[in-house]
């Protein structure tokens, strides 16, 4: 009978009768329905205002966890290969020192010019001029361009350029220009820029 009474009360209930003044006199079944609706609203509100923020915080922490794991793996790999890195660093320092020793100092430039002249003469060239150009400062070193003008046969020029590669100091060759001589001889005129380098000291 209680169920029949509840259903009858629900059928006879008019939703417009709900107000704060008479909420205590509403039928029990209506009170239960309103309580369930209120509970549902509280759950939804709690989700959006609290649980959702917690989920966002959890997602942020999980992303940070992945990042930290990657950093840990990277550092663990570096630690495992520390001895190999140290050996490699020692080899690089040795190679760097060997390269630095091949860079001329200011006092060695005249000797380098003399070596270039001798290479030309030994290979049968006629040296017209060897001119030092203004230095070019780079981040870690200074370029010392040297403009060279010479003339000789094709094979003599080739032997001269090959001999330049065998100098004890680092010399690179740039801006080749070879032209036939004005007279009808087999001589060729060569203009070339040789660049040597010196280490840039800290105060520079």
Count of alpha/pi helices:
5
| Biggest pleated-sheet summary | 5 strands, antiparallel
Distance between the termini: 104 Å
CATH architectural group of the largest domain:
2-Layer Sandwich
Q: Low-confidence parts lasting 5 or more residues at pLDDT below 50?
A: none
Mean pLDDT: 78
- Strand proportion: 15-25%
CATH homologous superfamily of the largest domain, by name? Answer: Ribosomal protein S6/Translation elongation factor EF1B
Q: How many distinct folded domains? A: 2
3D architecture notes:
The protein is α+β, with helices and mostly antiparallel strands. It has two domains: 1-80; 104-199, Alpha-Beta Plaits. It is 54% helix and 21% strand. The chain contains five helices and five strands, in the order ααααβββαββ. Strands 1, 2, 3, 4 and 5 form a five-stranded antiparallel β-sheet that branches. The protein is rod-shaped and about 125 Å long. The N and C termini lie far apart (104 Å).
What's the quick description here?
The protein is an alpha+beta fold and 204 residues long. The chain is built from five helices and five strands.
